[in-house]
Each structure stands twice: as C-alpha cells, then as structure tokens.
Design goal:
This protein has 240 residues and is mainly alpha-helical. Helix content is 82%, strand content 0%. The radius of gyration is 18 Å and the shape is globular.
C-alpha cells in the first residue's frame, strides 16, 4: 500500500522482539518482512543487507522452509542494485527450491521477479516466458495482486521492444493499473503510470506522456520512493 514509514516502524519492532528473545525463526521472519519492505520501496542496498543476514541465519539454523522466501526478494534486490546475473541465479534457485518443496505461497510473484531480472539482463524471451508463467499461475490461484505484477512486467517488456503495439501495451498497463488501484497497491499503480508515460513518450504522444509521468511523480513523491521519483523525472525531462 506504500505506507513505508508505518511498515518500517512495525518491522523494527518485530526485529527487536526477535533479537531480545534470541529466537532464530522469528529473526528470519523479521528479516523477510524488512527485506520485502525495502524491495517494494526500491531501496536495494537496505534490502540486501537485511536479507543476506536472514538467509545466512536460515541456513545456519537449518530453517529450510524459509530459504526460498528469503532468497527470492534478495535476488530481486541484487537485480535492482545492478548485480543482475546474481539476481537471476538466486531467483531461479528460489523458484526451483519452492517447486521441489511444493510451496505455493508467493510463487507467482517470484516468477514475475525472475522475469524482471531477465528483462534487466536483456533476456527478453526468458522474461516473457516467466511473465506468462506468473500470470497463468496467479490466475489459477485467484491472486489478483500478483496478476497486477505480472501484467505490468509483460507491458514493460513490450515497451522495450523495437516497435511496441501502443494500443495493446497501453491496455495491458491499464489492466494492471486498475487491479492495483482496486487493491490499494499504490506503488504498483504508480509504476504502471510510469510505464504508460514511457510508452506514450516513445510513441510521440508527449502531452499524454507528461500527464502520466507527472501523476506518477506525484504518487512516488507522496510515498518517498526515491529511486522511482528519479526514474519518473528522467522520463519527464525526455518528454519535454
């Protein structure tokens, strides 16, 4: 929902409780929650620090159950930080491990993250494959929020193609945006607007692009999503 300050307060309290009780399972849980917070707000450095500690602890304490749940957001954090190959590798391992253990929670989101890591690595076909897997799995399980992530990913892939189908890609973004708005997923909704702005800027529809990018910037600013504010500003400048 983009309520990052509130999330950070609760996460800090959870970490303090887990530490004071010297309870490894709770410490891993707290690391997972904190890492997810930082990945969502786009603070890769903070996410990596928290999640690496959590993954080491899960392995040392033989908490096998949590390994893929910690590894997946850590892989996404690596990809956001520019360590794309490491991110792809870790996400692939997390997906495979969860599949072998028959864990289904967050699997569609992990597939979407794997697709995004492939996209950042320039592996377009692999990104499309994982995005479609994520969308199919989310649809089968009725995971509407994960569908928003998958639809946004597939639209982002189309924007990066040589000749994107503007109407079809815009429709995909709007589907993701409508889901995100309905579910109050404010960060994803703002990211969809950023994607729409990028699409329309590339299509030469500068006025529309500026409106969408301005809306995205306003939303990112309200949530304090610094990385995404910078990206929206760069796109807005290119649309002038």
């Amino acid at each position: 929902m983009g309520e990052f300050a509130e999330a950070a307060t609760v996460g800090h309290e959870a970490a303090e409780i887990a530490e004071s009780g010297d309870h490894p399972y709770s410490r891993v849980q707290a690391a997972f929650g904190g890492g997810m917070l930082h990945v969502t707000e786009g603070r890769a450095d903070r996410a990596i620090s928290v999640l690496e500690e959590g993954l080491v602890l899960a392995r040392l304490e033989s908490i096998r159950f949590f390994a893929p749940f910690i590894a997946a957001p850590l892989g996404m954090a690596y990809a956001l930080a520019g360590r794309v190959d490491a991110g792809v590798t870790l996400l692939e391992q997390a997906v495979e491990q969860a599949t072998s253990m028959r864990f289904v929670a967050n699997q569609s989101l992990h597939l979407a993250w794997l697709g995004r890591a492939h996209l950042l690595a320039g592996h377009r076909e692999a990104a499309v494959e994982q995005g479609r897997r994520a969308l199919r799995l989310a649809g089968e399980r009725g995971e509407r929020g994960q569908q928003a992530h998958a639809r946004r990913l597939l639209a982002d892939i189309d924007v990066g193609s040589e000749r994107p189908d503007v109407a079809a890609t815009a429709a995909a973004y709007r589907q993701a945006f409508d889901l995100a708005e309905t579910l109050q997923m404010r960060p994803v909704a703002a990211q969809c607007l950023l994607g729409l702005g990028q699409l329309h800027r590339r299509a030469g529809q500068s006025d529309l692009a500026r409106d969408e990018l301005g809306d995205a910037m306003t939303r990112f600013t309200a949530m304090g999503m610094t990385l995404w504010i910078e990206r929206a500003q760069a796109e807005r400048a290119a649309a002038e």
